[in-house]
Amino acid sequence: MRFFLVLCGVVAVVLTCVVLVIATMADPVDLAVYRSGAEIFLGGRELYGGPVNNGLLFTYPPFSAIVFTPLALLSLPVAQVVVVLLNGMLLALIAHRCAGKLWPLVTAAAVLTEAVHTSLNLGQVNLLLLALVLLAPRWGTGVAAGIKLTPVIFVGLLLVQRRFRDALIATCVGAATVALGFAVMPADSVTYWLRGTFADSTRVFAEPGSSHNQSLRGLLLRAGVESPAVWIGLAVVVVAAALVVAAKADHVLGVAVVGMAGATVSPWSWGHHWVWLVPLIAVVVRELAARKWVWLVPVPFLLATPPPVLALVNPLVGTPVITGGPLHFLLGNAYVLVFLATLLTVALSHPALAAQARSGEHAVGGR
Predict the structure, then answer these.
(1) 8 A C-beta contact, residue 260 and residue 280
(2) Which spans are transmembrane here (predicted)?
């Protein structure tokens, strides 16, 4: 058995290295946007006035342009190699924190998902945000929320876990990132925070019902449900249930559940926003190794997340192979369904916790 685990570990490491090498040859679209945003900041030009690179807009808070400044000091090819290596190290660090000795298996499984695979290829910042929240929740949550808004949901996790001092520190750190933005980039900060740019999801993609939108809102719009009230109401229920579950869960499961909840209720979520699958995969591996077979429930949905599988319904180029039916719904909404399957698994494995979640949902609905 030990030999088998060592062999699997070696194969996993080799597979991960191959994926990282391939990522250095991909088109780092998002990295180019980050680098251009940093160049605009250093040049004192307007950050949100129009496209910054290849027709794409800068959608992150002003603080992020400051964080991305080192990228502007490197050529794009050099920056790509550096970011791929950093993302690879972050992924291994995250997997080790979540899975211990099984980290090579978790890392290899993670790089096969579209969420991680695309984050590596595009030069995305998602793995950094996950690492900050997972490894340094006190201050890392505030920094992550300053770089990108969605991690602010983890302040809620700290509150329900009764870590009030940590929640206060995270909030203060997040507020400090906003203040720094106003101090260094006042005009851009006014545009972003006071003129509603931060809430304009059309800057990410014009059509919210697109198959690229892997969120609850996207799912509802594709199903023909256009009422904002329905979306907001369900989003509140989702967040309430996730926070109740996370309040009693261990740190790894709590981060996975709350991170997936944030991606679920966001107005727009690309597939690469779902890097919260990494701690979930670690939990699934851990629980199955302990023969808790109920954790097989999320596995079919996780198996739907590799790029070749998702391309059956949502290819980057060409015509989809599957254009309708239950399988189209499953693959077209795989990430949201992974999250719902995880909540169901927790309900099946911890009935008392599930009852608390239902009570939390009812309480929210009654206010």
Answers:
(1) yes
(2) 65-95, 102-120, 140-160, 167-185, 229-247, 252-268, 296-317, 329-348
Token pair of 55, please? 């027709």
Residue-wise pLDDT tens digits, 13-42: 888 999 999 999 999 999 999 999 999 999
Average pLDDT over all residues of the chain: 92
Q: Above 70 in pLDDT, residue 360?
A: no
Using alpha carbons, select from 316, 305, 311 the residue that is nearest to residue 122.
Answer: 316
Alpha-carbon distance of 290 to 358, in angstroms, equals 27
| Distance of alpha carbon 199 from alpha carbon 204, whole angstroms | 10
Within 10 A of 195 (CB to CB), how many other CB atoms are there?
Answer: 11
Identify whether the C-beta of residue 300 lies closer than 8 Å to the C-beta of residue 187: no
Q: CB 334: neighbour CB atoms within 10 A?
A: 26
d(CA 12, CA 102): 10
**What is the distance between the alpha carbons of residues 358 and 193, in angstroms, rounded to a whole number?**
35
* Percent of the chain whose predicted confidence (pLDDT) is above 90: 82
Report d(CA 4, CA 197) in Å as an integer: 52
pLDDT of residue 351: 61
Residue 229 burial class via C-beta count within 10 angstroms: exposed 0-12, middle 13-18, buried 19 and up = exposed
The DSSP result for 56-95, as a single string, is BPP-S-HHHHHHTHHHHTS-HHHHHHHHHHHHHHHHHHHH
Mean pLDDT of 68-76: 97
- DSSP letters, 322-367, are --SSHHHHHHHTHHHHHHHHHHHHHHHH-HHHHHHHHHHHHHHHH-
The two most distant CA atoms of the chain are separated, in Å, by 61
Angle between helices 277-289 and 126-135 (to 10 degrees): 60
Q: Which residue has the tokens 């680098």?
A: 35
Distance CA 279, CA 151 (A): 15
Lowest mean pLDDT among 49-63, 68-82, 316-330, 332-346: 316-330
**Closest CA relative to residue 275, chosen from 152, 151, 167, 139:** 151
Sequence letter at residue 261: A
Q: How far apart are CA 212 and CA 36, in angstroms?
A: 24
The span from the CA of 62 to the CA of 67, in Å, is 9
Q: How far apart (Å, rounded) are the C-alpha atoms in residues 154 and 137?
A: 8
